Amino acid sequence: MPIEMSSRRSRITDEEINELISKLQSLLPESRRRSMSRASASKLLKETCSYIKSLHREVDDLSDRLSDLMSTMDSNSPQAEIIRSILRS
Amino acid sequence: MAISNAEGDPATGNEGGGERKRKRRADPPVAKWRTEGEQKTYSSKLIEAIRRVRRSSAAAATDHSRSRAVRAAADRALAVAGRGRTRWSRAILSGRKLKLWVRARACRRKPLGSITAASASHTTPKSKPPTLERKARVLGRLVPGCRKLPLLTLLEEASDYIAALEMQVRAMSAIAEILSAAGAATAEPM
Known about the structure:
By secondary structure, chain A is mainly α. Chain A has helices at 14-27, 30-33, 41-69, 78-88. Chain B is mainly α. Chain B is built from eight helices and no strands. The longest helix of chain B has 35 residues, at 151-185.
């Protein structure tokens, strides 16, 4: 039974919790879902937050890499033409 | 800001503009983030944005400030790819600085958040166990523009946001691979 109770409000229903849980499970990639098959909504929420944070970190790292590699994107460099042709394909 | 239009893209399986106008879906389909077409469009736009960053950045710009500019460009391009259908994409496009300023003003008054939710019981009548509430708030802070959303709506946004982030990682990784391979390929042999 949930700990807090307000006389005016009703508790979140079991059905809503289940909906929540299946929704949360669908947000996680396969690799992270394996250990979460019987996890609570709370654990799944935590894992979801952790996953988003790791995606943000990846994007930060990739931004570092790309800003270093930026010099190879000069319009008149041979690399730029390679990049353009690959993106066009 | 001109928003790219990938209507009629066979990769997404959508028809032309007709389907978009007729079907007003509540949840934007998440599957589009996984299509090759979407990633290609994003990659082109991102490369252009990064080129602009490079042109506009001063010679004295630090590695860190350049990296942050790339990150900002990548996020903006991602939000544009969202086509304004989600809260998170609109929040990014409306500008982070503006949001921070608005939030700073709001904080000077009484902090709202769950207290407001409690008194406006007709809008959010359910009370959740405190752990769930706390974690939901953490999630709300991670998804742009989604701080005060009820949990189930927040999950819809998070679902789209996560799929978009995954595409962003795939696209940026692929570009980084191409660029470093291009750099290696054209390097002068010693």
